[in-house]
Amino acid sequence: MENMTMMRSSILFSGLIILCTLSSFTSSAAELQRFPHASKANGSISFLILGDWGRRGAYNQSQVANQMGIIGEKLDIDFVISTGDNFYENGLTGIDDPQFEDSFSKIYTATSLQKQWYSVLGNHDYRGDVEAQLSPVLRKLDSKWLCLRSFIVDAEIVEIFFVDTTPFVDKYFANPKGSVYDWSGILPRNYYLSNILKDVDSALKDSTAKWKIVVGHHTIRTAGYHGETKELVTQLLPILLENNVDLYVNGHDHCLEHISSPNSPLQFLTSGGGSKAWRGVVSPYSPSEMKLYYDGQGFMSVQITQTELDIAFYDVFGNVLHKWGTSKQHYSFMGCLLSLCLVACAAELQRFKQAPKPDGSLSFLVVGDWGRRGQYNQSQVALQMGLIGEKSDIDFVISTGDNFYEDGLTGVDDPAFNESFSNIYTAPSLKKQWYNVLGNHDYRGDVEAQLSLVLRAIDSRWLCLRSFILDAEIVEFFFVDTTPFVDDYFTNPKEHTYDWRGVTPRAEYLSNLLKEVDSALKISTAKWKIVVGHHTILSAGHHGVTEELVTHLLPILKSNNIDFYVNGHDHCLEHISDSDSQIQFFTSGGGSKAWRGDIKSWSPEELKLYYDGQGFMSFHMTKASADVAYYDVSGNVLHKWSISKEIDSATHRTFTYS
Ligand SMILES: *[C@@H]1O[C@H](CO)[C@@H](O)[C@H](O)[C@H]1NC(C)=O
Ligand SMILES: *[C@@H]1O[C@H](CO)[C@@H](O)[C@H](O)[C@H]1NC(C)=O
Ligand SMILES: *[C@@H]1O[C@H](CO)[C@@H](O)[C@H](O)[C@H]1NC(C)=O
Ligand SMILES: *[C@@H]1O[C@H](CO)[C@@H](O)[C@H](O)[C@H]1NC(C)=O
């Protein structure tokens, strides 16, 4: 599970473009395919860069891979970049070449490396079936793999421009020696090259990212064996300089190298030490420009925030060979414009992925309103969740909020995190990812503590964001921050103090959130759509209906044909089957204190369950069916409900009750 945002709403993206266009950006960016990659919750990004590697583990390839795994974990990397020459000696023979597994999948096995890999092609890759490496079939074999000739990764604070450099090099055409290059797709060559240069130039000009990185296989500045690539020096370098690119990163020379000139901010970085190295050839180079030349194997790391960029080079033992950093405090015109766009367009919802089981099914539990240090039957509910969780082999847990009573957490070091979460939900079956939203009680403490990555470091199950998307293939979950919708907390907070940091100005926050949810729902192609929030929409419980959500959120849920709305807030277990729409409203707010004793009258046609006491819910879903069940503190089933969908139709439904 990681935030691999392979598909961000193109609607949002065009929104950004339109806004930026209004602010004088005219030509919209190039033909280059774009891959959005969300930054970490705190806005930073980190990644590794590796080049010239695929040799079935030989020549220290495996040792480098091993150290990448260790450093990758330490830096909590978001992705990996390959600078090409992915498979030696002659690329892949086809999509079924076993070398794909032998040199890639079976080598980079560390957990931290199971992230998206963004790869360009090197000259050796062009000596095989070049289209094999570009094929989506490889992505099916190993979902980390993503290789295109030229493309853009938009990681918010940094934009990375991948350039296909091999076709620039004259000698591969004029004097290929014994090698046969697969030039399919790049002819006529002059046309291909001039288009790339134009696309890269205009994409760089349109970019409002704080940092810009260009990645290619071939060298521009190097003291290594191959030396400088004169075609890139004359054709690509002027574009990099003109557009204030921060880093040019390449492979090709089998070494690690850092060159920069005192009168230009552009850094030239070679990371080509993925396997065979020790060439023993180094040309003399100005010592004021040569920051590192290492003739052996290794890789590099990059860590970026809004203001800092830090790189490091590592050898096969993980020793740091060289470190360098720079900062940009100064907010340029572009920077201001970017923040304007960000305010106006609002951050698109962060996306997380969760793979279903191999049989295509998905099981999870839902609990809400729980954190009371085990009191009020919290521990009993936790115990039963552990048993049912094991029986249904759950994939994850959802919390509908009010995670910590009475007033959220006081900070990231609040022992309530241990006492109400880590030390309560101890069953092995509950050691899965927890996806949490915030409730109104959470907003009464240090709200940012619950969102902090520090908690994830203390207990890796913890994942709490205000609003986000979980893409579980057959089901897409839309987690919505509902507390800021409720007028009373603002106009009549009584003795409570709410932490509204990050939520003001409120009107803008809410309208952005509704827009984001609506457009994310519209582009969703998942078979099932489930929206999760803390507050009720339809409920017969103590708090009852949340009018603000009925007015603002419910129309969006209806118009996008969601299947279920799941909430907490009322401390009960409840199932309302809306007679106005196909939406099922599930309340799972029985994680601890319950027995409120007040229930409003509700149409018996719609109210399938109201249980005033403690408990939780389970879901079992496939492409074609969903089964939900409600359990009390003793694990007794209070209510079961099922629905099936024909595989090809979202409308034909059959209902069964028990
Ligand atoms: C952002 O979070 C990561 C942990 O995922 C951490 O390593 C990094 O130091 C944080 N950066 C800042 C600027 O807080
Ligand atoms: C593997 O790395 C070690 C340490 O850098 C080096 O001494 C050795 O020559 C390398 N082996 C190969 C085959 O390159
Ligand atoms: C714990 O659960 C039992 C069984 O439902 C119930 O009788 C009892 O009142 C609950 N205790 C509390 C403190 O809610
Ligand atoms: C939580 O418990 C773990 C071990 O169970 C301990 O290492 C950690 O310091 C505790 N944290 C707090 C904030 O109590």
Radius of gyration from CA coordinates: 27 Å
CATH topology of the largest domain: Purple Acid Phosphatase, chain A, domain 2
Oligomer state equals single chain
Strand content range: 15-25%
Q: For the record, give the distance between the C-alpha atoms at the N and C termini, rounded to a whole number.
A: 35 Å
Please give the domain count.
Answer: 2
Uncertain parts: 1-30, 330-346, 648-658
Q: Give the overall shape, derived from the CA principal axes.
A: elongated
Kindly state the mean pLDDT as a whole number? 90
CATH architecture of the largest domain: 4-Layer Sandwich
Number of strands: 31
Strand order, main sheet: write it out: 1-6-7-8-9-11-10-12
- What structural category arises from helix and sheet content? alpha/beta
Tell me the number of helical segments per DSSP (H or I, 4 or more residues long). Answer: 18
Within CATH, the superfamily of the largest domain carries the name: Metallo-dependent phosphatases
What is the CATH first-level class name of the largest domain? Alpha Beta
Q: How much helicity do the residues have?
A: 10-25%
Major β-sheet profile:
8 strands, mixed
The ligands bound in this entry are: 2-acetamido-2-deoxy-beta-D-glucopyranose
EC number: 3.1.3.2
Enzyme class: hydrolase
GO molecular function: acid phosphatase activity; metal ion binding
Catalytic activity: a phosphate monoester + H2O = an alcohol + phosphate
